[in-house]
Amino acid sequence: MKVQFAPLEVPLQRRLQTASVLQWVFSFLALAPTCIFLFIYLLFTRFWLISVLYAIWWYYDYDTPARGGRRVPYLCGLKLWDYMRDYFPIKLVKTADLDPRQNYVIGFHPHGVLVAGAFTNFCTYSTGFKKLFPGITSHLLMLPLWFRAPFFRDYIMCAGLIPSDKESACYPLRQKKGGNAVVIAVGGAPEALDAHPGSYDVLLAKKKGFIKMAMVHGAHLVPVFSFGENEVFDQVGNPRGTWLRWVQENLQSFMGISLPLFHARGVFQYSFGLMPYRKPITTVVGRPVKVEKNEKPTAAQLDALHQLYMDELSNLFEEHKGSFGVDEDIHLNFV
């Protein structure tokens, strides 16, 4: 394979964009184990007191992720995230207002490999979420596993991330003043295994937990489709039924995280690496589906609302797909 190297004379703006995405990819893939290693390593050095003091802090702060986390607005608004937005670029599109007196459950589709659109749109201020939806505070859900990593847990909480377990996810929705939006990549880690360019498989047909959560708390449902999310990485072929998919699914069920064998470009060359391609991502926020509070919904009521949500997501996709180069004969496939 012939390696295509990046030209030497790259504009500074593009270099800064690449650097910002590089740190994000590192944070997503390697920062948690790095923090765990650092925490343990410091215990055996003359700086052992840092880890001991942090352990004491961790003990008293243990429940913070389950109580809405600890977003730091200054960090969410750093110029760093503007460079990341412009790398792809990423854009947020609004189709309807969200009433700040109401709480919401936002379903994000598809998951993609590294949920670049969800992070950039709902954890940073770079695409204008605060201006488009004034009075709404977004909380992106992340696997609880990552909140058990010292130092790393504090870093991700700064961006408004909270654990995806039931208790943590429901906390913002219990706030009666409204204005909270819980953002769920509904397909989760398993859907990442289907994140191939040109794929429009959405893992949703049997996903009803977020529907019930919305009903129990009377939170309106908001479908979101992120066009281009599956295009920024290639992935080794893993059709359902193959030995590779079998191994990936079993590892996912055991570890709680999926391991897609993805690749794209590098930092100094465009032929291979773990950096995403510079391809546009446009995240379209649909109209809210009104939900009446029902603390004990029946199976029939859950099924009806679930079907309504799928219909709204499908309509959102059909309405906007032509604007983003999706062929007319392509439709969402609910798995």
Task: Report a brief summary of the structure.
39% of the residues lie in helices and 14% in strands.
Which descriptors would you attach to this protein?
single chain; alpha/beta; two-stranded parallel ribbon; 12 helices; 11 strands; 14% strand
Walk me through this protein's architecture:
By secondary structure, the chain is α/β, with parallel strands linked by helices. It has one domain. The protein is 39% helix and 14% strand. It is built from twelve helices and eleven strands. The strands form three sheets. It has a seven-stranded mixed β-sheet, sandwiched between helices. The chain has a two-stranded parallel ribbon with strand order 6-11. The longest helix is centred in the N-terminal third of the chain and has 31 residues. 37% of the residues are buried. The mean pLDDT is 95.
